[in-house]
Amino acid sequence: MKSLIPYFREFLCAPIVILFLELLPVYDASYHEYGEALSKCILFFEGQRSGYLPQDQRMSWRGNSGLGDGWMVNTDLTGGYYDAGDNIKFGFPMAFTTTMLAWSVIEFGQYMPPSELGNTLFAIKWSTDYLLKTVSQPNRIFVQVGDPILDHDCWERPEDMDTARTVYTVDAPNPASDVAAETAAALAASFLAFRSSDPGYAETLLRTATRVFDFADNYRGAYSDNANIRDGVCPYYCDFDGYQDELLWGAAWLRRASQGDSYLGYIQNNGKTLGADDNINEFGWDNKHAGLNVLVSKEVLDGSVYSLQSYKTSADSFMCTLIPESSYSHIEYTPGGLMYKPGGSNLQHVTTITFLLLVYANYLEKSSQTVNCGSITVGPVMLRGIAKRQVDYILGDNPKGMSYMVGYSNYFPQRVHHRGSSLPSIKDHPQFIACKEGSIYFNSTNPNPNVLVGAVVGGPGEDDGYDDDRGEFRQSEPTTYINAPFVGVLSYFAANPS
Predict the structure, then answer these.
(1) What is a single Pfam family found in this protein's UniProt entry (predicted)?
(2) What is the pLDDT of residue 120?
């Protein structure tokens, strides 16, 4: 029988939990339709699709695009996702998006209604089918399709694209450890997501993940250090934080997928040399440290692999940084109660951190454990309370009373920084709109004609302010990697709304 002491300990800390949650502002804490938000969060990915759209495409204002992708290198590179409001296929964030969608299914799929689980698996497969194409040739990875400088000089629909669809390639012995290892992670995680529903496809994913990880590990270095592709991938998705975390992350996912001892040995033996002990409290497309620690800590909390204790210690430390009352508190909150990290699109941090809060809460609950954060003890109840407050803020419980998910509630961003959404649909305006002809739509103060349902935008600033301005891309641009972890988060709260 598991000890009840951790639960009593958390119960004794309940006044602190209540105090913390009461200290955060409440703005008309309305009841949220988390199930509706989940459906829309998944639907967003249909607006980001590249390639031939399927018959059952629900985002009906979109059309086929990027149908010649890969012809320059005699390879079919159609499909995949545009990462944000432009028309480029960046492999690094796309692979991370895929990993997070798959992790959402692994941890929270049991909470998803069957129809939404099916939609999420379809969203994953839209990406994994493309990722398999990018690594179809030995010791070569296609890391990007589209010239971002030319693309960003235009404001045009994906269906009208006439800028260069340059293919950026890395061949061994040139390194691409970050993109290759993240791709391996995506394929390994997706193996777990598809294992029961499509075992044949799942095996292909795992077999490919193993091969791609070897490429990442054998030729170590950051992909953006390659002179022949640097100008195309930087500064957009440059590897700013090094490739080492991706190697550990990829190995950790292969360990989870295969249960292979060689991958266990890899994360045990390489942790120190690859910087696992740096204890960097970040998680996103470029920095996997906090997510890696949470992922690996499951093996410790399950009571099996104590040689990985350092990862759990780092995961505990990360959780403590999120709690204002903790003596280890380290994160900023806006006056309205939203987690805030300076620089760039803020909600990308909020959705990934909220995801980790819920995953770790589940791991702690299953093992009847808590986290010692100095003066306070933290357990699943507190972690979920913090997560819920972030979700409710995004959905409208904030100083502006605005939902930062497009199409959810009656008040949401109307001028999203997104080409396809802001230009007339090809269904309504079949005539070609050239590169510079789209500028009048970009500069217009009118709402976008096509609602990009489910898109979570970059979000408000540190003062909770949001101007709903298409030109303020840090606030008004949605990305796939903001939405992907939010799928898992909303799945949990749709089933556990209180």
Answers:
(1) Glyco_hydro_9
(2) 98
